[in-house]
Each structure stands twice: as structure tokens, then as C-alpha cells.
Write a sequence for this structure.
């Protein structure tokens, strides 16, 4: 009963119903006192939860008293250490941080880390939080960037190794590290970490989610920084003069970076030129760097699209898709993005079509895309299914767009972890492809690779 009361109190705390939460905690403590007059380990848990409740109300003195009581009790019950003690140290560290007692906060965090290591729980998710918080204090309060980055890197490695599905958490650390690199004027590293962060957030949320937009601003701040641009141009000149193979690799990377800058500044001709240069140097020095080549082709496609050269833009994006399908067939996210861009270009070409069905189709597919970005997968599926029905009725020979829509439906089912239905729709794509030999779509071998991946996902759940 006491455990249930404590759980209810935690839920009430999350809902900011603090008076009701306090009442539940007090009822639990009264029962404990009646049946365990000499104390019990669970009493410490309740005290810690009460400390958290006051912490959430910014009542730090009250919070301190309850957490301290919990820690004293835990020390008596667990002389050799316990995970509850590590959690209390973490909570006390957070409390001292918000009281601006940064040295005390560091001390608590360090003790918490030692406790996790003592218990052979160094890979616990809270250990990552402790490492991240220690890094934050060293950076924000001690101005010790190198030491802070050291702790951030440990937290990042832990999450990527043991919690790879925690995309939002990983993205936040990458973003924080990118911000530190930017402060240190280590622009290449800053750009790389922010870029990685944004890609993860796009995968976890959507391109227009508030957190993604916030992180994109950090990325844009780097791209618009004059010191960064000057740095890139100087490095590019130096590497061109150097002329070594290693130089070619770096020149390709720098040209790619400048291409992104030019796109962000609407300098589309220059963006095109730098992307072409990047492809040239990359093909000379590292022809198997397919992702770099794909990124450059997509930059060229985007630059041409903004110049209303839709046919050429479509051709370059199609080249990017072909490379992905041949050399990166398991990168489903990137393949879908490329297909989506090709669909956007097709729609721009057909923008002036007077066909009512075409307008309805465009609206349905647009709504499907919007709902997908909002992570409203059920509504997105509804719109894409309606689009497929119109395509089959009025454009029954437009196999490319039918497969494109079916691909989206399959992918959304995949994101919903409805793997059986995802396979069903990919099988429809395959049947249309085999019957009509649609250029630019999944081949039998590529489909089978995805089929195997889905079956593997189903088996491990």
C-alpha cells in the first residue's frame, strides 16, 4: 500500500498537484511509522520522493532536508552501497547546482559516479546524466572547456554504446559539444557535431519540431559566422596549394561545407560550383565516400530547384538515390528523404496542372507529409492511402508515383513498429516494380534486403 501511495504521489507531482502529492507521502510515512518504528529502507525512498516534490516547486531548503534524511537512512541500511544511494547523491547534486553551490554539486556528482562504479553499474543511464552534469559545470561555471568536453565525451560514448535508441538524449549532448567547439573556434568540429545532432533529431522528431528548429538555429549561427567562413576559405586555399591525397580529401570536405553555407545564404550558383568541386576532389581521393557524394548531389539538386531548373534538379537527385540504393541500401531514412525530394520536384513541375484530381492528390500527399512530420502516423497513413486510391483510379500507369506513395506507407508502418504491415506494402511495391520495370525504384534484391531487416526486427522484439 505504501509503495502505491508513493507511486501515486510521484504521478501527482508530475501533474503539479503538489498538495495531493504531499498528502499521499504523509499517509505512506504514517503507515511506515506504525509498522516499522525502527525504520525501513522504503522510508528513505519516500523521503527522497518528497525531496524531489519540493525541488520541483523550487523549495530548495525543504528539498535539502528530505534528501539529507533519506541519505542518512540509506547509509545505515546499505553500509556497502546501493543504487538508491547513488540516486540520492544525484538528486542532491542537482539541488546544490540550483542553489548555485557548484563545488558541492560537483562533489555530490563525483560521489554518485563512484557509487555506480563500485556497484559495477558504470553503464547505468543515470551515470550518463552524472557525466553530462559534471561536464556542464566545468564548462558553464569553471570555463574549463577541455575538461567539460572530456566528461561530455564519456557520456556520449556511454549512450551510443548502451542506449543507441535514446536519439534525443544523444542529440542534446552532440549539440552541447558543438556549442563548446564553436566557443573554442574549432569550427569544423562544431559544424560536424551540430550536423550529427540535427540528423538525429530529424529522425526522432521531425524537421519542424520545436527542438529541431532550435538546434538548426545553432547550425545556422555557425554557417553565418564570418570567422567560420574565413576559416573555411583559408583552409581551402591552403589545401589546394598542398595538393596531396590527404589534401584532396579535406578539400572535398571543405567545399561541401562551403556549399552548405552558400545554400543557406541563397547563393545558389556558388553552392552548385562548390558542390561540384567537392565531388571532383572526393572522387579523386576517396571514391568510396558515398555519403559525401550523395550530400553534394543533393546540394546541387536543391540549388537547381531554387533556380527553377526542375528537370536538371530531378536528374541530380536521381543520381543520389541510385548511389544510395547500390552502396547504402540499409540507409532507409536517407533513401526515403531522396525519394521525397524527387516527389517535391515532380510536384513543382506539375504545379500549373489544371487537373482537379492532381490538385487533390497533391493536397493529400502534402497533408500526409505534414502529419508524418508531426509524428501523427495514423493520420499520415490515412492521407497517403487516399492518395494511393486516387493514383490507382486516375493515374493507374504512373507506377513511379504509386510506388513512391506505397513506399511512404510502408515506411510509416515501420516507424510504428508494425513490421508485418510494412512488409505487406513493400511487397506491393515489389510486385508493381517487377510487372512494369519502373526505373528508379526498388529492385528485387534491394527489396529482399529490406524484407530481411524487417523480419530481423520482428524477431528481436
Amino acid at each position: 500500500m505504501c509503495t502505491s501511495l508513493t507511486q501515486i504521489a510521484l504521478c501527482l507531482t508530475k501533474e503539479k498537484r503538489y498538495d495531493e502529492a504531499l498528502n499521499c507521502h504523509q499517509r505512506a510515512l504514517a503507515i511506515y511509522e506504525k509498522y516499522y518504528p525502527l525504520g525501513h529502507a522504503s522510508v528513505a525512498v519516500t523521503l527522497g520522493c518528497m525531496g524531489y516534490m519540493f525541488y520541483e516547486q523550487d523549495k530548495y531548503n525543504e528539498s535539502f532536508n528530505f534528501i539529507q534524511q533519506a541519505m542518512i537512512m540509506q547509509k545505515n541500511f546499505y553500509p556497502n552501497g546501493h543504487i538508491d544511494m547513488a540516486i540520492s547523491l544525484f538528486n542532491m547534486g542537482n539541488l546544490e547546482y540550483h542553489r548555485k553551490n557548484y563545488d558541492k554539486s560537483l562533489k555530490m556528482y563525483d560521489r554518485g559516479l563512484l557509487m555506480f562504479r563500485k556497484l559495477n553499474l558504470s553503464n547505468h543511464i543515470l551515470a550518463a546524466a552524472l557525466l553530462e552534469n559534471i561536464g556542464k559545470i566545468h564548462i558553464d561555471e569553471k570555463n574549463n572547456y577541455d575538461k567539460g568536453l572530456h566528461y561530455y565525451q564519456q557520456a556520449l560514448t556511454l549512450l551510443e554504446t548502451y542506449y543507441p535508441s535514446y536519439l534525443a538524449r544523444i542529440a542534446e549532448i552532440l549539440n552541447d559539444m558543438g556549442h563548446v567547439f564553436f566557443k573554442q573556434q574549432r569550427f569544423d568540429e562544431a559544424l560536424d557535431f551540430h550536423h550529427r545532432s540535427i540528423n538525429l533529431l530529424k529522425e526522432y522528431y521531425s524537421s519542424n519540431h520545436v527542438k529541431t528548429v532550435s538546434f538548426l538555429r545553432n547550425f545556422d549561427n555557425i554557417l553565418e559566422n564570418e570567422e567560420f567562413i574565413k576559416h573555411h576559405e583559408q583552409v581551402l586555399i591552403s589545401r589546394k596549394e598542398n595538393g596531396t591525397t590527404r589534401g584532396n580529401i579535406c578539400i572535398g570536405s571543405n567545399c561541401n561545407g562551403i556549399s552548405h553555407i552558400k545554400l543557406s545564404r541563397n547563393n545558389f550558383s556558388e553552392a552548385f560550383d562548390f558542390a561540384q568541386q567537392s565531388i571532383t576532389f572526393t572522387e579523386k581521393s576517396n571514391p568510396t565516400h558515398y555519403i559525401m557524394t550523395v550530400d553534394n548531389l543533393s546540394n546541387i539538386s536543391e540549388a537547381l530547384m531554387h533556380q527553377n531548373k526542375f528537370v536538371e534538379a530531378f536528374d541530380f537527385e536521381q543520381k543520389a538515390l541510385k548511389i544510395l540504393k547500390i552502396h547504402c541500401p540499409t540507409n532507409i531514412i536517407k533513401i526515403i528523404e531522396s525519394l521525397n525530394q524527387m516527389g517535391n520536384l515532380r510536384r513543382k513541375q506539375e504545379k500549373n496542372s489544371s487537373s482537379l484530381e492532381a490538385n487533390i492528390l497533391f493536397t493529400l500527399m502534402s497533408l500526409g507529409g505534414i502529419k508524418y512530420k508531426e509524428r501523427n502516423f495514423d493520420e499520415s497513413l490515412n492521407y497517403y492511402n487516399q492518395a494511393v486510391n486516387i493514383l490507382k483510379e486516375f493515374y493507374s500507369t504512373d507506377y513511379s508515383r504509386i510506388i513512391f506513395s506505397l513506399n511512404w506507407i510502408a515506411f510509416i508502418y515501420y516507424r510504428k513498429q508494425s513490421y508485418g504491415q510494412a512488409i505487406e506494402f513493400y511487397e506491393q511495391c515489389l510486385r508493381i516494380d517487377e510487372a512494369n520495370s519502373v526505373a528508379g525504384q526498388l529492385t528485387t534484391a534491394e527489396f529482399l534486403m529490406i524484407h530481411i531487416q524487417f523480419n530481423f526486427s520482428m524477431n528481436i522484439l
User: Anything to note?
Assistant: Residues 206-217, 244-248, 352-356, 438-461 have pLDDT under 50 and may be disordered. DSSP finds 22 helices and no strands in the chain. The domain at 244-352 is CATH 1.25.40.10 (Serine Threonine Protein Phosphatase 5, Tetratricopeptide repeat). The CA atoms of residues 65 and 194 lie 40 Å apart.
